[in-house]
Write a structure and sequence with these properties.
CATH class of the largest domain: Alpha Beta
Order of helices and strands: EEEHEEHHHEEEEHEEHHEHHHHEEEHHEH
Bound molecules: 4-amino-1,4-dioxobutan-2-aminium adenosine-5'-monophosphate, magnesium ion
Helix content: 25-40%
Strand content: 15-25%
Strand order of the largest sheet: 6-10-11-16-15-14-13-12
Oligomer: single chain
CATH superfamily of the largest domain: Bira Bifunctional Protein, Domain 2
Structural class: alpha+beta
Shape: globular
Radius of gyration: 27 Å
Number of helices: 14
Length: 505
């Protein structure tokens, strides 16, 4: 048996592929089956002249997602996905599928989510999962090559890390325990033991949030480095991001193409990332300052004009096609084409209408942004519109950031946190900081936040025994995948997503 991903090695030779029928077209005396075997997709051509009658009939009526084995010759063909086609000499049925619930017609997202266990077989989902896999590999590679030690931190925890409002409480032998919101505090202990470490684990946040960026269960990568300050942390983030983006762009060319991902911006990753203080970011957001001659508010106003023009154009096209369809007398092929194009345009119009109604709200909230607040999702979108690579926002007001962040020496209303915002409207993908290493200041912050001191006693030990400057950050894996694949929502970036309102399958 061979795999589709290896077909190039077998050009001109006979192979046997085992997989599932992802699609089927029939012609006169011919069946074209798109076979998928997990490693890829490949067109197999079955000719009545070659295949015994009973087998040809079986293939002719084969229900989608039936399992089959196809033997045949590998022929290069640029027009086919993967660049090869298999001219079948035999087909064997392994399992005849029942009627497959996911058809080619458009399904709503809820329907697809209910069938996530099957939806994962589709070409888009396949491509996304492959990108996710490659990204994970690149992340491990980067840290391992840099001498970091991968460490696992507990999922049952007794303490909050990122604020108490987002905890999932469970019962741990009669005692309350929380699902981990971050491995960071344990990561700090491990950095004091092993120097440079990173964690890679499931993370839980109980926000009843239905935004396109929130999951209840997601995977976070958290490096922590002893003897690093904020600037070294930012240097590391930049190199790390560059490495993983380059790696995915290089190795997932086919997948990104399947996703119709325009990789122009991804390929600009090798420039230095702009570093903005929070104050500077706010000034840019409000349009009070420009960045290299560009103004965030003015850019958005231009976007709005563009969206309105596109809308008018697309509406006119829909009208034209619908007019032609209403007139009748068209050949079936033309009719189907007009109908499909009109449907596609309507979908695009819906998305543009959403943008047209969002942009004025974004402009309003950006202009009225109050210094001292956290950046909201739309603020991030407005700000990052100025850049074509990730930006780092650092030195944040202390009151909106976690207790463990180190205060700035020159102004203790600010802390040495850093957020990395991805371009193209994807917003925050990394949160990090230099940590408070002064025991007294840390205690003050814990008390100020009203957090229970007892559960942090062990953490304070890290400031009692050889306390050193240290820093780290957390990357949200799913947000990174969403950006790399240019997906509107993070729910498609994880095999079986968990978010508010979704626990099955
Ligand atoms: O900014 P956050 O909350 O930072 C931390 O948890 C720190 N303890 C990390 C550290 O310094 N070691 O989360 C880090 C990242 C975010 O930037 C985002 O990418 C992701 O985790 N994230 C989420 N992803 C999906 N759904 C959610 N609900 C997320 N919350 C955070
Ligand atoms: Mg954050």
């Amino acid at each position: 048996m061979q795999y589709i991903q290896d077909l190039a090695q077998y050009e001109g030779q006979e192979v046997t592929l085992k997989g599932w029928a992802a699609n089927r077209r029939t012609g006169k005396g011919l069946v074209f089956l798109i076979l998928r075997d997990g490693t890829g997709f490949c067109q197999t051509v079955l000719s009545q002249e070659v295949i015994p009658d009973d087998r040809f009939d079986m293939a002719y009526k084969l229900p989608l997602e039936s399992a089959i084995e196809v033997t045949g010759k590998v022929v290069a063909d640029d027009r086919q996905i993967g660049g090869y086609e298999v001219q079948a000499t035999n087909i064997v049925l392994i399992h005849e599928a029942e009627e497959y619930p996911i058809a080619k017609k458009e399904h709503g997202v809820d329907f697809l989510m209910d069938h996530r266990h099957l939806w994962l077989r589709s070409r888009r989902q396949w491509a996304i999962m492959r990108v996710r896999n490659r990204l994970i590999y690149a992340i491990h590679n980067f840290f391992q090559e840099e001498g970091f030690v991968q460490m696992d931190t507990p999922i049952f925890t007794g303490n909050a890390v990122e604020g108490t409002s987002t905890l999932f409480e469970t019962d741990f032998y009669g005692q309350p325990a929380y699902l981990s919101q971050s491995g960071q505090l344990y990561g700090e202990a491990l950095a004091m033991a092993l120097g440079k470490i990173y964690t890679f684990g499931p993370t839980f946040r109980a926000e009843k949030s239905k935004t396109r960026r929130h999951l209840s269960e997601f995977w976070m990568i958290e490096p922590e480095m002893a003897f690093y300050d904020l600037e070294q942390n930012m240097d590391l983030i930049e190199r790390f991001m560059q490495h993983i983006v380059n790696d995915v762009v290089t190795h997932c060319h086919f997948e990104l193409e399947q996703l119709e991902r325009d990789t122009t911006v991804l390929k600009k990753i090798n420039q230095p990332f702009p570093r903005l203080t929070y104050d500077k970011a706010v000034a840019l957001l409000k349009g009070e300052e420009d960045w290299e001659g560009r103004n965030a508010i003015a850019l958005l106003e231009e976007d709005l004009k563009q969206v309105q023009n596109d809308l008018a154009e697309k509406r006119a096209k829909i009208e034209e096609y619908e007019g032609l369809l209403a007139k009748g007398g068209l050949k079936k092929g033309k009719m189907n084409y007009y109908r499909a194009t009109a449907d596609k345009l309507k979908q695009e119009v819906k998305e543009l209408e959403e943008r047209a109604s969002n942009i004025p709200q974004w402009i309003e909230s950006a202009k009225n942004f109050k210094h001292g607040n956290d950046l909201g999702g739309s603020d991030e979108t407005v700000l990052t519109r100025l850049f074509d690579c990730p930006v780092m926002v650092y030195n944040w007001p202390k009151d909106i950031k976690a207790f463990y962040m180190k205060r700035c020496e020159d102004d203790d209303k600010y802390v040495k946190g850093v957020d990395v915002l991805a371009p193209e409207g994807f917003g925050e993908i990394i949160g990090g900081a230099e940590r408070e290493n002064n025991k007294a200041l840390l205690i003050e912050r814990i008390q100020h936040e009203g957090l229970p001191m007892e559960v942090f006693e062990w953490y304070l030990d890290l400031r009692r025994f050889g306390s050193v400057p240290h820093a780290g950050f957390g990357l949200g894996l799913e947000r990174m995948v969403a950006w790399l694949c240019n997906l509107h929502h993070v729910r498609e970036t994880i095999p079986f997503p968990r978010f508010y309102g979704r626990l099955n399958p």
